[in-house]
Amino acid sequence: MLVIISAGIAPGLALLSYFYLKDQYEQEPILLVFKSFMYGAILTFPIMFIQHVLITEHIMQGKIENAFISTALLEEFFKWFILFFAVYTHGDFNEPYDGIVYGVSVSLGFATVENILSLISSGIEVAIGRALLPVSSHALFGVVMGYYLGKGKFSSDKNYIKWLFLSFFISFLLHGIYDYILISVKNWIYCMIPFMLFLWWYGLRKVKHAHILTEKLHQKAIEK
Fold this sequence. Notes:
- The chain is mostly helical.
- It has one domain.
- The protein contains seven helices and no strands.
- The protein has helices at about 1-20, 30-55, 65-85, 100-120, 125-155, 160-185, 190-224.
- The radius of gyration is 17 Å and the shape is globular.
- The N and C termini lie far apart (about 55 Å).
């Protein structure tokens, strides 16, 4: 059991450390990052309960509904809800890149608990595959969500609502496509590999843009 728990935690911790250490200016308080991670972990259980009800009651029967509504919509909405109401207005969320740190924290909290439960159910032999696909994809959905939250919070225009909407919608859309490939495409690995490469490219591009926005914010502060 200790091996399974360690294997379940390790990829999430590694990815969280990677994105946390890429903060070039003021790294976030460990306690708040941990709280965000735990918020995501706790979310796993009500989300899984709702998904169980949807499956057992045959409410979502089609592959599109399962991929985009019972999985992507539920998971990304609750993660967005926690980020917006528990982190967005926090005083330590004071740079655009911070959104990525907290977005990844919440997403990986959820993914880590989900990963542990899956390893308990399926065995340690699926650990590498889960680290490369579900755990890393959740981290990247968190990157996208956090990037647009950070962009919205520090936007100088009045269209911040647009960025807040995109923070949910794009992560939801990417998550839905990911799940649709898994459950509906025959020989799904041939579609999943290019999709994951795109997801990493897109996520790291948002990291780069978040760094640029953060640098501009600091330059403005110096000029004042």
